[in-house]
Amino acid sequence: MTTDTEEPTLTVDELAARAGVTVRTVRFYGTRGLLPPPVIGPRRVGRYGRAHLARLELIEELQQQGMTLAAIERYLDRLPPDVSAGDLAIHRAVVAAWAPDAVATVGREELARRAGRALDDDDLERLAAMGVVQAVGDGGDDGDGDDYRVDLALFRLGVRLLDVPLSQESILSARGMLLGHARAAARELSELLRGETADRDARDVRSLSAHMQPLVVQALLTAFQRSLKEELAVWLTQSPPAGQPDGPAGRP
User: Fold this and answer.
1) Alpha-carbon distances of 179 from 12, 164, 183, 185, 247, rounded to whole Å
2) pLDDT band at 154; cut points 50, 70, 90
């Protein structure tokens, strides 16, 4: 699995393909200072890494939300200079949370273009199992003409999950777990807000909801991120080295 500490290995063509943009777009963002310069390797070939990809995906998400390049520059300037790829992904998740629900119907070739990679039948089956795509056409025996309904808010996430070294069952279980907890939290928060607005008119209720929604989403995301880091730290501390017996710090 790629980490922030690994050496950049992507060429500009590979970076553009992974992000689903053109090479010209990557170079343009670089000239505007939106994307850090690549690491120059042997033969003066520029190499890009995970942080470049995460930043490029954030820029694309901000553009899809209607932000101008000038506004995106201001947004990125406020980020810490050593911001990690993981933190950039969190920023993108917050931005994507405000995207309106959107579903598009595209062909298989367009689906691969949006994914920035080839998608074989197994990939499509996994994306369908995650509820990201749904086949709606019949392109014959070769399937090249099939159309797919795509949940645009989840598509990029689903494609990235294809490379996560977890079984399909584990991914689906995690999805169900997160959805269950999210719905429970939303229900309890809704009841709390309902109690606060019992004596207010509909206009006040809508105003309070509009103000609270971004705060609640950011609070939930921040709380979950920190809790997950704490749990992973405990897990990694307790995980024994390879070949050692189970138990905290390798003790039986």
Assistant:
1) 36, 19, 6, 10, 31
2) confident
Domain assignment present for residue 186? The answer is: yes
Assess contact for 63 and 194: CB atoms under 8 A: no
What is the domain range of residue 48?
A: 12-96
pLDDT at 140: 43
145 within 8 A of 137, measured Cβ to Cβ: yes
* pTM listed for this prediction: 0.54
Residue 102 has pLDDT above 70, yes or no: yes
Radius of gyration of the chain (CA): 21
Structure tokens at 170: 């584990």
Query: Is residue 51 within 8 Å of residue 35, measured between CB atoms?
Result: no
* Whether residue 48 sits in one domain with residue 25: yes
Q: For residues 234 and 36, what is the distance between their CA atoms, to the nearest angstrom?
A: 34
CB 108 within 8 A of CB 144: yes
Phi-psi region of 71 (alpha: psi -120 to 50; beta: other; left: phi over 0): alpha
Beta carbons within 8 Å of 23's beta carbon, 6+ residues apart: 12, 13, 16
State the CB neighbour count (10 A cutoff) for residue 108. Answer: 19
Q: Is residue 35 part of a domain?
A: yes
| C-alpha dist (Å) from residue 216 to 33, 179, 193, 196 | 32, 16, 11, 15
